[in-house]
Amino acid sequence: MQEFIFVTGMVLKQTVFGEYDKRIVILTKERGKISAFARGARKPGNRLAAATNPFSFGVFKLYPGKDSYTISEVEIQNYFESLRSDFLGAYYGMYFAEIADYYTRENNDERQMLKLLYQTLRAVESPSFDNRLVRAVYEIKSIVVNGEFPGIPTDRNLQDSTVYAVSYIQSSPVEKLYTFTLKEDVLLELIDVAADYMKKIVRHEFKSLEILKTLS
Fold first, then answer.
1. Which residue range is the domain that position 30 belongs to?
2. Rounded CA Rg of the chain
3. By three-state DSSP, how is residue 36 classified?
4. DSSP state, residue 61
5. Ordered per-residue pLDDT tens for the chain, 216 residues
6. Do both 123 and 48 map to the same domain?
7. How far is Cα 214 from Cα 158, in angstroms, rounded to an integer?
């Protein structure tokens, strides 16, 4: 009898596999980042088609193979549907998912990155937040979550409000990250701090960011 496992997670990306299948990458609460095949997901009307699109969050029923998993069923709790009709928002989402894909590994405890990605996509969907602020918060917090936060920059004359914002992002739980807004001058400083962290610490070229820059 086939032994199934259940994982809660979000689809980070999908690729075409064979004539009708998809290979997806899921960031899960239980097993970190895993790969799974969705057989027939590219056939019209297939029950796995929508559930295997990027940003889909829910419970995946899988059976394990030698090198990856195969999806049996999916119960989606949030499709982040509005991102599919928001072109710019979708690219922000793709950038955040690409950072999560870069940082996470299979069988690691990636619950905080999953939670961060989920809350960040909710913030992108909300009209209350400037996407530039969401991006800066996510970039800084992803570095914090992965244990690489270098501290507040001391080589520049930052406003007190900017220093407070960075400290708040560093110390606050993910659930309380997106609870503030900033004046434009403070936001621009925070964006610059986040960009400097990404350049000096992450040091990776993200394809979706290059597209996002042209759109923004």
1. 5-78
2. 18
3. strand
4. E
5. 568 999 999 999 999 988 999 999 999 999 999 999 999 999 988 999 999 999 999 999 999 988 889 999 999 999 999 998 899 999 999 999 999 999 999 999 999 999 999 999 999 999 999 999 999 999 999 999 999 999 999 988 999 999 999 999 999 999 999 999 999 999 999 999 999 999 999 999 999 999 988 887
6. no
7. 28
First to last CA, the chain: 52
- Residues 22, 92, single domain; the answer is no
Total structural domains within the chain = 2
Contact 12, 27 (CB under 8 A): yes
DSSP 132-188: HHHHHHHHHHHHHHTT----S--SS---HHHHHHHHHHHHS-GGGSSS----HHHHH
In the chain, which ranges are continuous DSSP H helix? 82-85, 87-103, 111-125, 131-145, 160-171, 184-197, 207-215
Which residue, 118, 6, 111, 114, is CA-closest to 60?
6
Same domain for 88 and 26: no
Distance in angstroms (rounded) separating the CA atoms of residues 6 and 48:
16
Nearest to 151 by CA among 126, 169, 176: 169
Nearest to 139 by CA among 194, 189, 95: 194
- The 3-state DSSP class for residue 111 equals helix
Nearest to 133 by CA among 90, 94, 179: 179
